[in-house]
Write a structure and sequence with these properties.
Layout: H1 8-26, H2 30-36, H3 39-54, H4 60-67, H5 71-81
Helix pairs in contact: 1-2, 1-5, 3-4, 4-5
């Protein structure tokens, strides 16, 4: 698994966007989503799904659905972390 971003600020920004996106998509408050998926779990899931996405196993929209975030948030998360594709 290839991690691109190592800057703590970038990782924090991506995780914050992830939790906010999940909350908005699920119509819940932010804090229950943080308890559901830790930052480490989020990053592991993101990088694993991104590898499959790069191999064209599924679309970006499907990847966003698997993460539980709007596609536009996934695009921003990928940009923050320097993920290509």
């Amino acid at each position: 698994m290839k991690q691109v971003a190592t800057d703590t600020t970038q990782l924090d920004q991506a995780y914050k966007l992830f939790t906010e996106g999940r909350a908005a998509k699920s119509q819940k408050t932010e804090s229950p989503n943080i308890q559901e998926v830790s930052r480490e779990e989020f990053l592991t899931q993101l990088y694993t799904l991104h590898e499959a996405y790069v191999e064209r196993e599924f679309s970006e929209g499907y990847m966003a659905n698997l993460l539980g975030v709007p596609q536009i948030d996934l695009i921003h998360i990928k940009l923050i972390l320097g993920l290509e594709g």
